[in-house]
Amino acid sequence: MFNWLKKRSFLFIVLSGYVFSLLFLLILTHIPRNYALAPLFLIPIIYVTWFSKTKGGIILASLFILTAAAYEIISKYPNVNYFALLWNNFMRFTYELALVYIISNLQQERHAARKDYLTGIANRQYFVELAEMEIKRSSRYKRIFSAAFIDIDSFKRINDNFGHKAGDHLLILMTNLIKSNIRNTDVFARLAGDEFVLIFPETDQEQSKVIINRIAKTFIETANKHKWPTTLSIGLATYLKAPKSVDDLLKKIDDLMYTAKKNGRNRTQSEVVDEYK
Questions:
Q1: Residue 119 placed within a domain
Q2: What range does the domain containing 66 cover?
Q3: The domain boundary residue, chosen from 79, 112, 145
Q4: Angle formed by the axes of helices 42-76 and 2-29, to 10°?
Q5: Which of 23, 93, 147, 277 has the fewest CB neighbours in a 10 Å radius?
Q6: Residue 197 domain flag
């Protein structure tokens, strides 16, 4: 279902960009030698590449060049200079491809700055952006949400006794385990080291506990298979009223996580927050 929606979205973006290209083509061909308006041709390329990546940009550039060439042949037939037609469209296609790859690289750099280098999930910077959006949404529409801070117990011992490769492998397994137990609408990020955070929009304490307990249980089973002496300490807060800031949110679930550690680790410390002073 999700892949089908993605394909529909991709087709819509490319086709809408193609429609805009045709409109610009019709407009500009009736304004002779107005080079100031020529960059209008690039707007659909930028739009499609930004939202459908390199593949969409190349498809649109190819469709547009073929359409522009066909339009020129039909409108000028039989007085068509095929050499000039071929050269002009080749140069235009080259410019458009160059623009596609420039936009794609900018987008990749933007995404890379938001992703954790090891696990590929959101990093702290991106989490702050997503958490701010959820706090604003919760505050505006009076929606409940839950947030969890997950810390891997004795992670340093894993690195010391089994090596850093084992530690990295554990973090990746942890990431995949959590991703398989949450929704696409949930926020999941790695803050640093062995610290992970989750936000469950429109999820109460009971529902979020079910998810967290399933994650903790599966994690212990996975760790036991690898003979890793580790568990999870988790702080879980359910907000009936949105916190004032992301810092307040992180402090609350971080404090709850440390309380879980002080109480013996391998447990979840939860709290319902019904007001925020």
A1: no
A2: 2-112
A3: 112
A4: 50
A5: 277
A6: yes
pLDDT in tens, 134-171: 999 999 999 999 999 999 999 999 999 999 999 999 99
Separation CA 246–CA 158 (nearest Å): 31
Start-end of H helices in the chain: 2-29, 42-76, 82-112, 124-141, 155-162, 164-179, 205-225, 246-262
Q: How far apart are the C-alpha atoms of 246 and 122, rounded to whole Å?
A: 15
State residue 82's pLDDT score.
Answer: 85
**What φ, ψ does residue 186 adopt, rounded to 5°?**
-80, 150
pTM: 0.70
Q: Is 14 within 8 Å of 52 (Cβ atoms)?
A: yes
In whole angstroms, what is the distance from residue 178 CA to residue 181 CA? 5
List pLDDT tens digits, range 20-44: 888 877 777 666 555 555 667 788 8
Boundary of a domain, candidates 63, 81, 112? 112
pLDDT at 1: 40
